[in-house]
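Hey everyone, long-time lurker, first post.

I ran two proteins through the pipeline my lab uses and got sequence/structure pairs for each. Pasting them in order. The first:
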Amino acid sequence: MDRLDTTRLTDLVGKRLKSASRLRDLALRQQELIRERKMGDLMSLLARKQRLFDALRDVDRQLDPYRDQDPEARSWRCAEDRQRCARAVQCCDQLLSEVRRLEQQSERLLVQQRDDLALALQTAHGAAAACGAYAAHTSFQSNPSKSA
């Protein structure tokens, strides 16, 4: 492997790191929007996240040939370049792990909100039915001639 290949590898790892960092930022914002119940803004954010996931998948495909190589056989311009690239890979993996954790938390928040809303709707429906029955009963008692 020549230095051009390691330069390309470093560039791709940098793109991957940038995408992972942006995804983490959006995942944090996503939780804020969920907590604030801003579903319109959330939908917009999810569309942006999808584009980032697509870009990340594209970079990962470009990185595929490097996965089969022996890292020791790569020709780096200097040892520091190799170390920087290795740190970037490690940082990217940590960010993506954090994104997964944040996504799971967001899903739990949404499920909880959905369940809370379902319970509120069920309670409201029960209260409305009770009010309707009470109103019908009071109307019937105050005007019994309507039943005849």
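...and the second, right after it:
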Amino acid sequence: MLKIENLTVKTKDKEILKNFNIDIGFGEVHAIMGPNGTGKSTLSKVIMGSSDYEILNGNIIFCGDNLNGLTPDERARKGIFLSFQNPLSIEGVTNSEFLRTAINNNRENPIGLYEFIKELDKSVEELSMPNDMIHRSVNKGASGGERKKNEILQMKLLKPKFLILDELDSGLDVDSLKTVCQNINNYLKENKDTSVLIITHYPRILEYIRPKYVHILRDGNIVSKGDYNLALQVEKDGYSKINNLNGNIDNE
């Protein structure tokens, strides 16, 4: 589904990603882990088309199409969804208005009001969100946990093909994290070709959304790769002992 080839990216005068490569198949869950400042969030923003970064070399291929040069909204319409690490608030635009507009921008015929409300109410209940949330401005006055749930509410209604979950577990308590991850797992069961890229510091979220592959990022490139056991090794020994690209538990 997503293939990144020899991607080198800079912001201002600093290279962040350096000849970065990854290949994510249909229906696969991949995790990117690494210390702060290694380029994890940069990767998510570059895939989504942020203008803060310049691609010096390489290609981002999604479902056979080269994304280089496409705007974020064009990438979103292709089915790429980014759950932000720090979701912004939009005052004066309610969640329901935002979602219905976003859905209709990707449909030939507008979604019916009854169908929209029915699906929205169902998703709000499944996420254990306050009923009045849909009538509030997007993320206005919302806690960190409410903002993250709101991101997953958007995912459930927009129905993307590829999910990028950037530090999804930050701001969520244990119960909220379980609820959010259960909703994501249910979504993946219903949409089996959907692929996921989880970006995280810690393996806790990977206990709930189990990745097929785990990649360790350092200095803008992958230095180790393996299965879920690699995340457990990180939890046990930290990142300092993981330097070998093939590693002791490389199962690819």
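Reply from user beta_strand_b:
Welcome! Quick read of the second one: Residues 216 and 222 are 6 Å apart (CA to CA). The chain has one domain: 2-237.
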